[in-house]
Amino acid sequence: MAAAQGRLSDGAGGMDKAKGTEEEARHKGSHNASNASGGGNGSTVPPAFAAAVEALRAVRLRPQIEVEATPAPKRLAPHAYALEAAVVDGDEDLADGRLVLLHDPAGHDAWHGTFRLVTLVRAELEPEMAADPLLPDVCWSWLTGALQARGLAYGEPSGTVTRASSHYFGGLSARPSASQIEIRASWTPREGLGGVPDTAAHLSSWCDLLAQVAGLPPAAPGDASVVTLPQRRDPQSR
Question: Hey, what's the torsion of the CAs at 37, 39, 40, 44, to 10 degrees?
């Protein structure tokens, strides 16, 4: 899966940036509790965080969206769980991204809660779309609109929308120019019973954003083609 491997930071939390390491990559196949806790140090996983992670794993997704667990950053919060995703059409990746669930049982002043969702989404753009001066505002509205469309309550949204273009010269001059959009964002999901946010709905809204960035039509309500996330695999399966 050519999913996003970029640097993630929680702008609203003012916390350290985290980047995947070679050691994390070697353990990419592991979905066990130590990875879910973000530290792999044997610390006890809080029940609210465990419930939030299990809810993520039970989500049913469109078949065009491939999602799998990936090593979570270790410095953003005491507990973290990460997913990476790609929108695939045949052999082509139309968009990709990463979603990280953070949890600090003691709470975080900037979050105004104990949970935080951090995301990176990116996709290639058609030249005419890349030239639209309103594109960054539109992309941000796709994110907030995806959350609002599912009736989700959230707070402290923060993020950036970056548009980049590449032009090739010399030995690479035969390549056509390319443009890419990148959305980095974080928000605080409102907590429900037992202090657990509706992470399943937040993941679904994030996948709605991925699909929209990739140019897919909206999925019909109750679409029978949606599928569940892959079941947890043995860490030694890869």
Answer: -50
Token pair belonging to 211: 């699909």
Query: Beta strands of 13-153 (E only): which ranges?
Result: 60-61, 65-70, 79-89, 92-108, 113-125
What is d(CA 53, CA 59) in angstroms, rounded to the nearest whole number? 11
- Secondary structure percentages of the chain, helix, strand, coil, to 5: 25, 35, 40
Of the candidates 36, 175, 157, the residue with the CA atom closest to the CA atom of residue 103: 36
Around Cβ 40, how many Cβ atoms within 10 Å?
Answer: 18
Q: What does the pLDDT look like over 167-205, one tens digit per residue?
A: 889 888 888 888 889 999 999 999 988 899 999 999 999
Per-residue confidence at 220, pLDDT binned at 50, 70, 90? low
Q: Could you tell me how many residues make up the chain?
A: 238
Q: Comparing C-alpha atoms, which of 140, 141, 116 is closest to residue 38?
A: 116
Question: How many Cα atoms are found within 13 Å in the side-chain-facing hemisphere of 215?
Answer: 11
